[in-house]
From TrEMBL:
Keyword entries, A-Z: Hydrolase
A GO MF label: hydrolase activity
Entry annotated with the keyword Hydrolase: yes
GO CC annotations, alphabetized: membrane
Keyword Cell membrane appears in the UniProt entry: no
Highest taxon of source: Bacteria
Entry protein name: Alpha/beta hydrolase
Entry-linked SUPFAM superfamilies: alpha/beta-Hydrolases (SSF53474)
Organism: Oceanirhabdus seepicola
Domain AB hydrolase-1: 19-120
């Protein structure tokens, strides 16, 4: 399905019945990374799995910023009149979730974010160096965004009041200290580390995160 928002067209999948659940993927991916989890989640939720602008079947753009992603998702929810959805975001999707929950405290009923960072320093050094190398070769705006953004403050995090669940892998590219920093500054939040998993292994083409979402939303 397609929807026109903020002068771009976003592609999304709607599937299932029940309370609404918004799902957002990471950088360079599409909603399809959630297919295995969605097969479980559709029994409990009406799932809206969206492709960010410049990703999947959504519109291409000349510049890419996290604020634009956040504005798109806010308007998506308003246009479709989705009331108090659960929000799940992986990586870039998690960043956008933090931004929206801090700016619009009553937008979501619950916030679940996997491997988010509030600034580029949250990434392990080797990951940032690799991104710089990739950007030097490809000049990708998706990589440039990760190198320079986001800039979410501690004050922003403190504005999030809804139940919040933060996850990471024990071998994540986001440092554990950074994930702890996020958790410690969101009042009603918990942090879960998935042992022996990377940034994406429990999410991409996996039903592990789907089972976790069901567990925390019971």
């Amino acid at each position: 399905m397609f929807i026109k928002i903020n002068e771009v067209t976003l592609f999304y999948q709607r599937i299932g019945f029940g309370n609404p659940l918004i799902m957002l993927h990471g950088n360079g991916e599409t909603h399809e990374i959630f297919n295995r989890s969605v097969s479980l989640l559709q029994e409990y939720f009406t799932v809206y799995a969206i492709d960010f602008r410049e990703h999947g079947n959504s519109s291409k753009v000349s510049e890419l910023h996290y604020k634009d992603h956040a504005d798109d998702i806010y308007e998506f929810i308003n246009q479709l009149n989705i009331k108090s959805p659960v929000y799940y975001g992986f990586s870039d999707g998690g960043i956008v979730g933090l931004m929206l929950a801090s700016q619009y405290p009553d937008l979501f009923s619950k916030l679940i974010v996997s491997g988010p960072n509030i600034n580029p320093k949250g990434l392990k050094t080797y990951a940032r160096l690799f991104m710089k190398l990739v950007y030097g070769i490809k000049k990708s705006q998706k990589v440039r965004m990760m190198l320079n953004e986001p800039d979410i403050s501690i004050s922003d995090l403190s504005k999030i009041k809804i139940p919040t669940y933060i996850t990471g892998g024990s071998f994540d590219v986001i440092t554990k200290n950074h994930l702890c920093l996020i958790q410690e500054n969101i009042k009603n939040s918990v942090l879960k580390i998935f042992k022996y998993h990377t940034h994406s292994s429990y999410i991409v083409n996996s039903d592990i995160i789907g089972k976790y979402i069901i567990e925390v939303c019971k």
